[in-house]
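User: These chains co-purify. Model them together.
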Amino acid sequence: MATPNLRKAPRPRRSPIMRRAFPYLLLAPAVIYLLAITLYPGVFAIYQSLFVVRFTSWTWTGLGNYQGILQDREFWAALWNTFVIGAIALSVQTFLALTLAYFAYRDPFIRGWRIVYLMPMLFMPSAVAFIWKLAFNDGRVISDILMRLGLIERNVDWLASIPLARMTLIVADVWQWTPFLFIIFVAALQGQDQEIEEAARLDGASWPKIFWNISLPMMRPVIVVAVTIRGIDITTMFANVFVMTQGTPGGATETMSYFIYRQGFRMFNFGYASAASVLMLILTIIIAQTVVKRAFRSGKN
Amino acid sequence: MAQVRKRRSDGRLLRYLILGTWALVCLLPILWFLSIGFRPRTEVITPQPIYWPTFSLDAWRLLTSDWPIALYLRNSVVAVAGSVVIDLILGIPAAYALSRYEFRGRDDIGFFILSTRMMAPAIVAVPIFFLFKEIGLLDSVWALMLIYAAINLSLVTWIIRSYMLDIPKELEDAARTDGASDLTILREIVIPICLPGIITAAVIAAIFAINEFLFTLLIASTSRAYTMSVALANFTGGSDGIIYNAIALVSFIAFVPILILVILIQKHLSRGLTMGAVKG
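Assistant: Joint model of the two components:
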């Protein structure tokens, strides 16, 4: 292996202190930048959450905002909605992606046309939200198709019922992000040692059995990492809610992100929004320290 | 024997039925939305959906006359490209340190960087809004650039770190005995070898930056800083209602470059999306 352009002359070795500090110096710019964009907002949010903020006037309220939030039905509803919508969407897309990956990964042509399966993911989320808003609500396409199939009799108002409104958000998320899990699962399955599967095949095991008993356990770490990443992103769902439902009906589709946005930037209740941010931050840290840390540890081995 | 063969072809039929159905599920909404972009507004929202519309360039005319679409596009490109450059400048040295050195707190620092990826944008939205208001950065492309860079720095660092871990240590040791300094090794050996990883990280960061919605919505309040993503949301405004055909057209204008970028890095996509956890 040639190493061109390297200085041949022996250089004076750096001092031990410099050598020790070197990796920290390499990391410093990135860490400082991230601290500035996370720690500063965190501290600011904690500070602001102790005030009632009305435009430029800040009035001290102590823990008043927190007291208010913990008794605020809308806050608990937002937390619950985020959980329900996220859990259903995540389960559905994990199941779909695994099923599709099972059928696709041994297909000789998959490399050629998997880009088709990726396309939904490559649309801007806001655009995807508009696609489904038009399909469900404004353009009535879904209703029309279901009527033609004879499944329903008249137009469905998807925003009138809580389960249906939530379902529109779930459909949009599943449609856009099943490809994310699919491409990862296919890559993981194709990266596995083929010989193990071949050996099991020679022993007379069927493909579904091989998948269930051998391939699936082997790719468990990958599933955990991928589902964790997707889970994080689902809980931050905002664009879909903003475009499609705005929280209707009666706040049943309002997610945490949308709750904070609405309190802060629609009702200009900034102290209150900050308090909600702090609570959500605490929740995030707990989840990060437990689930995510473990997921990424296991993903490496 | 005959029965085995029959069962196998049944399996293939089922496989293509399922894969084919899902391909349609992926494609039909996209094609239908594309058709929205090329129909007159009167044929978008109707009592009965129109599946075979008349062709029209109304949306295109609207975009080029009433909206400074070129400006939105330029804002997007400046903010996104700038943020990717920032990410690479900060992320490559960080990834190098995380992958190549033993030092105290390495794993904790690495996890801190990773964990910034988990912050919901909404958590920091209010403070960032006040911060940028204070320093006069609201409604500016630069603010968007800084935000996008912050959002993507964690994944850029982790993706590149994963590629750097693959480089055999002996290669560097050989260069080091030749008297090369650490920075020379990074520049002359490590960066060229993991160029695919760096490109993958850049592409994925660019996609997420284009997709970013919440901050863009908050920071960009006039067309001076509107990007494609917020421009979309803004077609919903006012007495005109939602102008779907313009929205469809704009989303395809953003879709095409992303599609091309992704085709270029297809082989590395799954590794990039899992921040290096899957080596596809």
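Chain B has 13 helices and no strands.
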